[in-house]
Every structure is written in C-alpha cells, then in structure tokens.
Amino acid sequence: MRLGDNEDQARFRAGLRRWLAERVPAPGEGAPRTWTAGELRSWTKTLYDAGYAGLTWPAEHGGQGLSPAYQAIYAEESALAEAPDHAGVIGLNMVGPAIVAYGTTGQKAAHLPRILSGDSVFCQGFSEPGAGSDLASVRTRARRDGEDWVLDGEKVWSSYAHLADHCLLLARTDPAAAKHRGLTCFLLDLRQAGVEVRPLRQLSGDTDFNQIVLTGARVPGTAVLGEPGQGWRVALTTLAHERGTFGITLTARLAVQLDRLVATARATGADTDPVVRAAIAELHVTLQGLRYTGYRALAAAARTGEPGPESSILKLRWSAANQRVATLALRLLGDRATADGPDAFWGGYWQHQRLRSRANSIEGGTSEILRGIVAERVLGLPRAR
Fold first, then answer.
1. Which stretches of the chain drop beneath a pLDDT of 70?
2. Which residue numbers delimit the Acyl-CoA dehydrogenase/oxidase N-terminal domain (predicted)?
3. Is there a contact between 350 and 326 (Cβ–Cβ < 8 Å)?
4. Is 242 a catalytic site residue?
C-alpha cells in the first residue's frame, strides 16, 4: 500500500489543486457556501470540459481511463477546496460503471455521454418500505406485456430523484424464483406516465430523499440493464462502486468538518477545556484510522479491479464520527445551540448538521446491513441467517 503519490499522481494533484484554486472561492472560516441547482449544472459542465468527469471510466466511453487512485486524489482535493459535486454524482459514480459493465451498445451510446456532461441525471431505486437495505426482499413487480415491461410498486429514500431524469431501478420479474434470482434492473425514464416522485421532508428540512410510486409504468425491453433475472448481480456492481472511492470522499469531508469543529471550539473559548480537547483528539484519531483504511481499500481495488467489502467499514465508522462532530459542536455552543436562523452561530449551521447527520447511518446502506457485510465478507464470520 502506497501512502503517498507517485510522480505522475503528484503532478496530477498539483495541477488539480491549481485548477480548483482558480475556480472555487477560497473557503473562509465558518459555514460553507451553498450552491443552487443552476450553479451545480454550470460547475458540472466546467468539470466535463476540463476532463475531471469520469476519471476512471474507460477512454472509449469518454473517460480518462485512470486508476482509482486518481479519483481518490480528486475526491480529497475537491473536498478540501469545498468544491461542489458533479450534478449527476450518482450516475457518474454508480450507474455509469454499471452501464459500462452490463449495458448494450445502444444503452451506452444513449446514456454514458449525457451522464458525463451532466445533461442526464440518474438516481437509484433500490430501497422499499418493506425491504430497506435488504435488496433480496424487493417487492416492486415488473411483468412482461409483449415487448414491454409494466412496473408497479414503490421505492423510498431515492436520493435526488426529484432532480433526476432517469432511475436505475430494481424490480422482481420472477416471483417464483429464489429471492436473489428473480430480480431485474431497469433504466427508467422518470418523466414518463405511471411514475410519481414525492420528495420526503427530513428533520433538517431538506428534501434530498424521495418516494417513487410506480403505477402501470410501461418501459420497453431495451430499458433492461443486463439480462432479465440478473438484477442482483447488476445491483451489487452498482453498490460496490458506490462504496469504492466514496469512502475517500467522506474522509476528506470529515477532515473539513473537524477543522470547523476546532474553529468553533476556539470561537466559544472551549479550546482550552481538557475534556473538549480530548474529545477532539479522539475524533482526529478516528479520522486518521478512516483515512488509512480508505488507502488500504484503494490498494485492494487496484489489485482486483473492483472495490472490495472493506469499504463498508469506512461508511459505517464515518456515519458515527460525523454524528459525533455535530453533537459536540452543539454542546460547545451551550445556550446558543437553541438559536436558529441568521442570528445563530454561523447561521444555524451546526443545528442543521446535527439534524441532517441522523440520516448518515441510514443512507448508502444502513449501519446494520454494513455490519453484516463486514462480519461475513471481511472477518469471515458465519452468516447470521
């Protein structure tokens, strides 16, 4: 495992750092700036034009054909610069690689260029009210009707579905088959008849998550990704890429949050309190553990060509650490923690983070599911069921 960049990676990092410095306002002390949907679209085009979208995608599909190490460098540097995400981050990091692996020539031509450029935004439709992160329990049904499929069912917790054009959706096409075998993935047009997207309001007031209701939604056979009945394999490929360099991104963002926590401690005069200093030091140790776990997972991916189950450790521990940062920040504010709005400390930034962070242990795979993956696929423990 390399703990530093090689010569070419160092040049790439230095060039990227200069490029970001020229285009992203330097972060000041306090809460980060927010980006409108229009600004995100504009930023996505800037990324695409500069060649920073799809760094690890094959060159024949519009990418740069680089190793995951370069994507990790981009994730670190963009987080530290507080740059916004690509507008189609789910399509770029999860759906796109699945289309590369399983898509037909027509599907690749129709979707991959538009995902890279941000002209087409994808969400993911896996979780359901009765299934959650247990994908094998999916109940959304798809039945054949001539050359088409007709979909009925419901999805929940679909991030950014209210902004998306398409959805990579998992449905049960063979009710008689074993739970893992009767599933199929579809590239669903969210603007078509029979599809309703309902934003879900969170504790923080955000509406990042959505419910997708399917009522007789008709999709052509050309919308099947992979072969009918191969949905489980396609879904696992998608989730593996979700947890690939995503852990590096989360770690870099946690580093930025920890810096903000330190700034809050200084602003409130708590930076000399030994209990507070010990708590921050413990979080710093956790951050370093996550960082090197991320590098280890990256080294494993470089050997095998696919992200491994070790990346689940990153998501699991990051969720708890990020929640602890926000909790400690509010404790440092004392009575001011009850204030909100423009008169609050940093405009109520930490209050919002505390509420938003509660979803960290649910989104991207619940902590319970991730513990099972770590137990069975990393530690080699016997299956619980």
1. 1-2, 28-30, 132-134, 241-245, 305-308, 384-385
2. 6-119
3. yes
4. yes
**Can you tell me the distance from the alpha carbon of 186 to that of 99, in angstroms, rounded to the nearest whole number?**
11
Q: Compute the chain's Rg from CA coordinates.
A: 21
- Domain 243-378, second-level architecture: Up-down Bundle (1.20)
- Give the start-end residues of each E strand in the chain: 122-125, 141-145, 148-155, 166-172, 183-189, 195-200, 209-220, 224-225
Question: Using CA atoms, how far apart are residues 230 and 93, in angstroms rounded to an integer?
Answer: 20
Out of 2.60.40.10, 3.40.605.10, 3.40.710.10, 2.40.110.10, select the CATH number for domain 122-230. 2.40.110.10
347: left (phi over 0), alpha (psi -120 to 50) or beta: left
Longest dimension (CA), the chain: 72
Per-residue pLDDT reduced to its tens digit, 233-260 = 998 888 776 666 677 888 989 999 999 9
The single residue of 242, 306, 310, 368 carrying the catalytic annotation is: 242
Specify the 3-state DSSP secondary structure of 284.
helix
Angle between helices 68-80 and 7-23 (to 10 degrees): 30
In angstroms, the first-to-last Cα distance of the chain is 35
Tell me the CATH number of domain 7-87, given options 3.40.50.2300, 1.10.540.10, 3.90.320.10, 3.40.309.10: 1.10.540.10
Beta bridge partners of 166: 122, 189
CB 201 within 8 A of CB 207: yes
> Do 39 and 83 touch, CB atoms closer than 8 A?
no
The whole-model pTM stands at: 0.88
CB proximity list for 303: less than 8 A, separation 6 or greater = none
Taking only the tens place, the pLDDT of each residue in 278-337 is 999 999 999 999 988 888 877 777 777 666 677 788 889 999 999 999 999 999 999 999
Domain boundaries, the chain: 7-87, 122-230, 243-378
Show the CA angle centred on residue 149, arms to residues 219 and 120, nearest 5°. 25
